[in-house]
Structures are given as structure tokens and as C-alpha cells.
Write a structure and sequence with these properties.
Length: 353
Amino acid sequence: MKTVTVNASQTYEVKVGRGLLADLGKEIAPRMGKGRAVCLVSDSNVANLYLDAAQESLEDAGLRVEPFVMFAGEIHKNVRTYAKLLDYMAENQITRADALVALGGGVVGDLTGFAAATYLRGVGFFQVPTTLLAAVDASVGGKTAVDLDAGKNLAGAFYQPRLVLCDLNTLDTLPDDIFADGCAEVIKYGMIGDPDLLDKLETIDFRADPEAIVARCIEMKRDLVEADEFDTGARQLLNLGHTMGHGIEACSDYGISHGKAVAIGLTMAARTAIAHGLCPGEVLPRLIALLEQYHLPTATDYTVEALYDRVLADKKRAGETQTLVMPTAWGKSELHQVPVRELRDWIQKGLTL
């Protein structure tokens, strides 16, 4: 087992290893303070696999468990599901001393975290990610949110968990398609600032033994969160591939998954960077080959105008400026401030180089 400590506004541990779900109650109960109840949130896919085991572990530790199962999928990470969860907690007398536990992927973690941040002005929050994407990215760092009709993650809060427990056994039950989504985020970390990680991904199949790769991604995110918890500077590097990726997700009404949209966004960022002379041309074919190695798409049919309308709603827009993350080498990226009036051209270059 590997443990990564995150020193943010709340210090907490991220534990990565196999068989950790069985110890969920033992891990959470000592961190509850006076609270004796948890609302255990999962989705309709994950609940069939792990809800009973998680509930049993929590109850064995002396906690009252109120399970809440939402429909699976990004399309349900909205204010309606969020309101249902708040009502459910109130009806079941979850108090300020109690907590929420997110058992699932990034959708469950984002929504549960936002509920924890806002219910009774803040209750305890624990993350138990069950997908590769959630383990390496969504469960760490305190970003919580729900989607609005206008765009993704537009209503949210920074709210750190008390513990993140990554049981790698849950990754064994992921369909290949869902595992691939997480690989897009892993490749993103390499492109942000770890060429050695990219080299490793080119030569190994890490699915059978993911601990070192997962822990490395968490360490990279930890470092950026500690430097810039509230996402005003260096932490924005984590958005590599995401500005265009979120636009692609929205254009597809979330029919294209987050990981696949990010993969396309990574290649768009590389094409744009090369066209603007920010990145050497040899990065693009190598990046495309790596993404395809992990069964990820590298292009989209959406038009400049369709993507432009969605990108304008991105959280990183500040007035008439949009922050874009551009690769500048194999395993290195930088932030670039782009005037909104030039954004169509930047998107076009990402589509056509």
C-alpha cells in the first residue's frame, strides 16, 4: 500500500492499495469525531458491485448507514440529483457531526462533495473512488461540482475530503472502455510534467499492477494542489485537454465520456501549440500513438462554432481572456492567456493541423 499526504486547507491521506474496502469502517470511524451516521452515496452501476460490502464495513465499525443510489452517468450530475440528495439527508437526520461517503467514479465524487460542502454549511466527506479516472484525478484536490444546462461543473465549491481510500481491486471489474477513460487522465499527467511517466506508459501494460502509476499521478496532483489549492495559477495545468474536452462532452450531450473527450482535447492542444510555434511537431504523432495504444480517440467531427459556444462557458474564462494549457515539449506544458476574440482561431488550429 502507498500513502500520499495532501497538505491543503485540510490535511488528509490518500491510501492506494488492494483490499482496502474491507477496512472502510475502521478508517472512517476514527475520523468522524462525534458523528455516528454516514450517508453512503453510490450510483446504479457501482452499487450492484460494492455497496453491500461498504455498508457492512461501516456498520461493523458502529456507524449508522443511510445509502443513497443515484442514476449512473454524467447526465445525472445535476442540480436535480443534488437536491434529492440534500432532501434525503435531511429526512434521515444527518447532522453536522455526520458525514457523506462517495463510493463510485468522478460523477459520484463530484456531486457528493458538493453536497457535503453545502449541506448544513459543511459536513464530513470521504472519497472511495472505484474507477481509474476518479482514483488518479477526481477524488483528490477538493474540487466538487454539479453541471448546469450551460456547461459542466459550473456550480461547485472547493471542499477537501477527510480521507481518500483507493481500493485497486475495484479497478479489476472496470470494463475496458471505462478503464481507458482513466488512461486519458494518466497520459495527461505525463504531458503536464513527467516525460518518464509517458515513456513508461509506452512500454508497459499497467492494468495488472496499477499501484505505482496511480500513486505517481496522485503525487503530481498533490504537488499542484498544495501550491495552488484554489486554482488561480499552477493548478490550472491540470486542465490540459479539458477546456476542449468539456466542450466536446457538452456538444455530445455527454454521450462522449469524459476520458475520451479529454483524449481528443489533448491532441487538439498539441495541434494548436504546434501551429503557434509553442511545441515541436514530433510531439503530435507520438502523443496520438500513445492515446491509440490505450484505445482512445484523437479527433472529433464537431465544428469550430459548436465548440466555441461551449468553450465560452468554461470556468477558466476571466472576462475577455481564456486560459488554455499548451504542451511545449514531450512531458511539459504551460499556461497561455488567449483573448476571447482569438479563440475561434485557436480551436480551428486544434482541429485542422
